[in-house]
């Protein structure tokens, strides 16, 4: 288990605050980060049902697809992927890697894609292949929560996490639900989406559906600083470069962990961050840099983040 100290730009002078980061990005070399934990029980179920094909949904740059394909390869099942968006002039790096690993891709209109397991494209795929196990987008659902609960327990039981206030980034809140139901005392969740007001309720509902309860003291924040999901701001780019200079070797992903750390930094600077010992959970996702423009790269050429 690797925990690093994360030095914040505001801490170059003496500070009574301690920031740590759990390096989920270094857990293994096949699809590190939260997605493999969300997938764990889904893929176990697919194997126990002897499904030869495992299908899922994802965006063209998604960390979920990258992890899904990598895990399918290890388990020797054939990945089928419904990709959001119908016209592709060129495959993204994420999709190219998926095809190279043997995945079969199905384009879908955004409208139909939104219907998920009720979509037409799902029916079409089921028409081509028999005995397909479907994993919801992002590895969501109760099985996703339970995988993240296991993950949260392993991290929180490590001595280095003792007494820490946990911070985790969220999209659907499934990962956060696993942490909220684990034995940690307090948790802040930072949404990568703008304007979410019901994140706390969503996390509670995800826990309930998995037969769990939120036991941690929970605070939630939305993405109010950079223009919304997947958007990079100049301020964030400058911050990431500075953070990397202070912490060589610690790189954050563009969509989730970077915005979480930035938001905590902003609060800390204003004296609004009360926690003495903070533990950020690095949920991986570095391959996401491959989907960002050339002038939005704080860590240079992102080619090393390829899957
Ligand atoms: C998907 C993802 C998240 C969000 O996970 P949810 O369970 O949807 O909240 C956070 N960080 C990274 C790097 C991700 O890829």
From TrEMBL:
Please indicate which superkingdom the organism of origin belongs to: Bacteria
Residues passing through the membrane, by range: none
Per its UniProt entry, what is the enzyme's top EC class, as one word?
lyase
Q: Give its E.C. classification number.
A: 4.4.1.15
Q: Which SUPFAM superfamilies match?
A: Tryptophan synthase beta subunit-like PLP-dependent enzymes
What are the recorded GO MF terms, alphabetically?
Answer: D-cysteine desulfhydrase activity
Asked if Lyase is a keyword of the record, the answer is: yes
Cofactor(s) of this protein: pyridoxal 5'-phosphate
Record-stated family:
Belongs to the ACC deaminase/D-cysteine desulfhydrase family.
Q: What is this protein called?
A: D-cysteine desulfhydrase
The protein's gene is named dcyD
């Amino acid at each position: 288990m690797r925990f690093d100290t994360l030095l914040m730009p505001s801490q170059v002078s003496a500070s009574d605050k301690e920031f740590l980061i759990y390096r989920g990005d270094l857990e293994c070399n096949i699809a590190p980060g939260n997605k493999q934990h969300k997938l764990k029980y889904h893929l176990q179920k697919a194997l126990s049902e002897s499904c030869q094909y495992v299908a899922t949904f994802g965006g063209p740059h998604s960390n979920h697809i990258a992890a899904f394909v990598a895990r399918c390869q290890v388990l020797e099942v054939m990945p089928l992927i419904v990709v959001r968006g119908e016209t592709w002039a060129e495959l993204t790096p994420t999709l190219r890697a998926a095809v190279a690993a043997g995945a079969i891709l199905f384009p879908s209109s955004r409208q139909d894609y939104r219907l998920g397991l009720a979509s037409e494209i799902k029916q079409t795929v089921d028409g081509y292949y028999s005995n397909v196990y479907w994993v919801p987008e992002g590895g969501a659902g109760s099985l996703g929560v339970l995988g993240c609960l296991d993950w949260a327990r392993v991290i929180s039981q490590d001595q280095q996490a003792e007494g820490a206030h946990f911070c985790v980034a969220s999209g659907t809140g499934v990962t956060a639900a696993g942490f909220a139901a684990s034995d940690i005392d307090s948790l802040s969740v930072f949404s990568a989406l703008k304007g979410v007001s019901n994140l706390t309720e969503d996390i509670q509902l995800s826990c309930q559906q998995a037969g769990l309860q939120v036991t941690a003291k929970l605070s939630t924040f939305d993405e109010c600083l950079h223009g919304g999901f997947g958007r990079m701001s100049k301020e964030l780019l400058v911050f990431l470069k500075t953070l990397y200079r202070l912490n060589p070797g610690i790189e954050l992903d563009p969509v989730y962990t970077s915005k979480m750390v930035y938001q905590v930094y902003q609060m800390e600077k204003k004296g609004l961050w009360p926690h003495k010992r903070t533990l950020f959970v690095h949920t991986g996702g570095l391959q996401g840099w491959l989907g960002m423009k050339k002038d939005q790269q704080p860590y240079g050429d992102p080619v090393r983040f390829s899957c």
